[in-house]
Give the backbone structure.
Amino acid sequence: MRALLQRVTEASVTVDGEIVGEISNGLLVLICAMQGDTEAQADKMAAKVARCRIFDDDAGKMNRSVTDIGGSALVVSQFTLAADTRSGNRPGFSTAAAPKDGERLYEYFAQKLADEGVPVQKGRFAADMKVRLLNDGPITIWMEF
């Protein structure tokens, strides 16, 4: 699994003009299931995301997690994180999980993150989504399991 975390003060996802997910202080998590990914990898990713210390403590040091600050997560499926750009000018996405597996692991990851104590909002799998965010820092972290 691949994830791109962005520390945000606000984020939302709109589909067909309707907001389907929205958070204030927390994490925008763009997530991609790769071919061969398993629930065990999603479990590890959810635990790591919940505990990733990228929020400031009282001294201004990144020492708190999203759970420590009482923040939320907006989880958005993003198969383009599987992009292979090594040759040509058009990215290839053949290493992304098949849509059925991708959706299953996306939903599983979001539930596991919620099980870790993080309030979760979601985008809509395979929809044409418009994502708005205010990146705080900016802090952007890449994770892969």
Q: What stands out?
A: Residues 2-138 form a domain with the D-tyrosyl-trna(Tyr) Deacylase; Chain: A; fold (CATH 3.50.80.10). The helical segments are 39-51, 99-115.
